[in-house]
Amino acid sequence: MEKLNTINKLLALKRKDKFSAEEWERRGVNPSSSELCEQLTLLFNDALDALIKAVENNASGRQLKSILSQHLSGFSKSDYDTEEREFITDLFYKLASILNIEFKHQLNNWLYGIVLGTLIRISSLFRKARVVVETLSQECSNCKIQLDTFILERGDDIPDLCWDIIQCDSCNEYNLLNKGPHIRELRFGNYRWIEQLSKDEFSEEQALVRLEQIKYFRKK
What we know:
- By secondary structure, the chain is α+β, with helices and mostly antiparallel strands.
- The protein is about 45% helix and about 20% strand.
- It has two domains: about 1-115, Up-down Bundle (hypothetical protein mp506/mpn330, domain 1), CATH 1.20.1480; about 135-220, no CATH class.
- A hairpin with a 6-residue loop joins strand 1 (about 135-140) and strand 2 (about 145-155).
- Residues about 120-125 have low confidence and may be disordered.
């Protein structure tokens, strides 16, 4: 009975219009393009098909987690903006919940990178209203708009681990973001996260060199 119930939930999710305009509006954001929504739907339905088949064949929890990980890696997060990445994360969390699988760590790593993924909780997994305790602002080097990072929770035990390369939503310029330490939970604001650089491996000068490389190769 439990197996049948799980399969029915997965089938219902497959039939659902997961990226409809109503679903985006429910999240309080504008819908993405129809082409991107169609791509996301195909990728998610591929994952659902694989999971349904695995459940039918009595796959173990470990095998189901492996399937989830494989399909999550099929989403190139640099192709999506902040809201799209959070939407993807939420749906994979829903899949994991249906399967009764612990998958938060993998989702953290996908959304924030391996270094921060072990330290920062994903606020989008917990759909309670969250209070922004602080807003970090940094001027875009091109259009001069303020790029905002919303701090939802501080933690004295969280070190300053990474540089972030981000892309401004307004002008698409790449910027180097230095958030500093003691951030336990955050939300990206009006920019897209592109790449994370460990401060153990990259000095500020080296991080700026990497930033210029990204500007050169991605704008060609």
